Amino acid sequence: MSYNKEGYSSTWEPRDPLPESQEGAKTPPAMSATKGGLVIFTANSNPSSRELGRRIAERLGVELGKVQVYQEANRETRVQIQESVRGKDVFIIQTVSRDVNTTIMELLIMVYACRTSCAHSIIGVLPYFPYSKQCKMRKRGSIVSKLLASMMCKAGLTHLITMDLHQKEIQGFFNIPVDNLRASPFLLQYIQEEIPDYRNAVIVAKSPASAKRAQSFAERLRLGIAVIHGEAQDAESDLVDGRHSPPTVKNMGAIHPSLEIPLLIPKEKPPITVVGDVGGRIAIIVDDIIDDVDTFLAAAETLKERGAYKIFVMATHGILSSDAPRLIEESAIDEVVVTNTVPHELQKLQCPKIKTVDISMILSEAIRRIHNGESMSYLFRNIGLDD
Predict the structure, then answer these.
(1) Cα–Cα–Cα angle for 160, 166, 172, nearest 5°?
(2) What separation, in Å, do the N-terminal and C-terminal C-alpha atoms of the chain show?
(3) Are the CB atoms for 274 and 302 separated by under 8 Å?
(4) Which terminal residue of the chain, N or C, has fewer Cβ atoms less than 10 Å from its own Cβ?
C-alpha cells in the first residue's frame, strides 16, 4: 500500500514482474530501457486525472511531454503542444473524467495536433474506452462506440492501447491495431494476497451474462462458482427495445398465409435464485465495469440471505457515478476493488470500502514494447479469452 502526497487513500501496487506472465528464468527487459524518440503526453485538463500518466512516465524513466490542455471561456477545448514531436512516437494517455464528452474532444484535438506536427506514430492509451456500453443497437439509436472509433481513426490515431473492453468485438470497429490488455492477473493477485482466507471463497456472477468471466476467475484460483439468476426485466427485453414496432396485427388478407410470422411467447424471468452454494463462504462478485451499483447491491443482499459472510466486488473500471459511494457504504458489500483505469479519488474519500489496484505496470510495459518494436504476446501469456 502507498499514499500520495495529498494523503488520498492507498493504492495497492502488484509485485514485479507481471503476474502470470513469467517466462521462467528469463526476465523481461527493464521498463526504463527505451530508445530515443518517445514522447508521452497526458490529454487531461483535469489534474486529478493525470496521476496515471505520471505513474507510467516514472516507470519508463522519462518525463511527461510539455503540453497545455484547457477550456476556453466558451467551453471550447484548446491544446498547445510545447515541444517538437516531428518524427517521434507519441503516446497520449487519456483517462475518462466525469465530463466524458470533454475528455473525448481533448483526445481528438491532441491527436490531430500531433498529426499536423508530423509525428511518426500516434498511439492512444485509453485504459477505459468511453461509450463502450453503447456497442449494440438499441431501439432506434446508434452504435456510438463505432462512431467514436471512426472519429479517432480520422483524427490520426495509428494504434490504440486499452484495457478490458466491455465487448471484445469493439476491436473490429477500428481499422488500426488495438491491444486490449487484461486486468485479471492483477485482480487475481490481489485476491490471493489481500484476502487471507480466500480458499473459502466462491466466485459469483451477478447475472448469467457474466458467468464466463466468473468461470475464468474460478478456474485460476481453483474455487467454486455461483450464478445469480432471475434479475428484474432489463432494457434488452423484446417489449421495450423497438422490435415490437409496428404492432403485430393478424391480417390474413395482407400477406400470404404461408408467410405469416409466428408470434413469440413473451419472456418471463423466474424469481431470483442462486445456482451454487455460498453458505458460510466468502462471495467474490466479478465484473468489468461498476457504475450504476443497483444490480451489485441487489446481488449482495441475495448472497447475504443465502449465508455468505463476506462479500467482495472486483471490477476493472470503477466509474462509480452519482451516489454510488454512499450506496456502497450503506450496503452489505464489505469491499469494492477496482483498478485505476478511471480516476476515483473523490469516491474513495466518500467510501472507505473502495480499494484501488495499480495497473500502470502493464500499460508502461506495453508502451515500451510498442516503441521498441518488441512482441506484445508476453503481456497476454496465460490470459483466457473470457478474462
Answers:
(1) 50
(2) 25
(3) yes
(4) N
Report the C-alpha gap between 166 and 289 in whole angstroms.
8
Average pLDDT over residues 104-127: 96
Query: What SS3 state is found at 48?
Result: helix
Compute the half-sphere exposure of residue 1: CA atoms within 13 Å on the CB side of its CA: 9
Q: How confident is the model at residue 108 (pLDDT cuts 50, 70, 90)?
A: very high
- Annotate 64-108 with three-state secondary structure: CCCEEEEECCCCCEEEEECCCCCCCEEEEECCCCCCHHHHHHHHH
Bridging pattern class, strands 67-71 and 77-81: antiparallel
- Pairing relationship of beta strands 89-93 and 77-81 according to DSSP bridges: unpaired
Q: Which of 155, 152, 159, 49 has its CA nearest to residue 97?
A: 49
Q: Which parts of the chain fold into alpha helices (H)? A: 51-60, 100-116, 144-155, 184-194, 211-221, 294-305, 324-329, 345-350, 360-372
Cβ pair 338, 316 in contact under 8 A? yes
Cell of 28: 523481461
Q: pLDDT for 283-320, tens place per residue?
A: 999 999 999 899 999 999 999 999 999 999 999 999 99
pLDDT exceeds cutoff 50 at 28: no
Among 97-111, 208-222, 246-260, 264-278, whose mean pLDDT is lowest?
Answer: 246-260
Q: Residues near 46 by Cβ (< 8 Å), separated by ≥ 6?
A: 97, 99, 343
* Strand, coil or helix: 1: coil
C-alpha cell recorded at residue 74: 466558451
Q: What is the pTM of this model?
A: 0.84
d(CA 339, CA 343) in angstroms, rounded, equals 9
In 3D, which of 140, 136, 133, 135 has the Cα closest to residue 244? 140
Task: Provide the 3-class DSSP secondary structure of residue 355.
Answer: strand
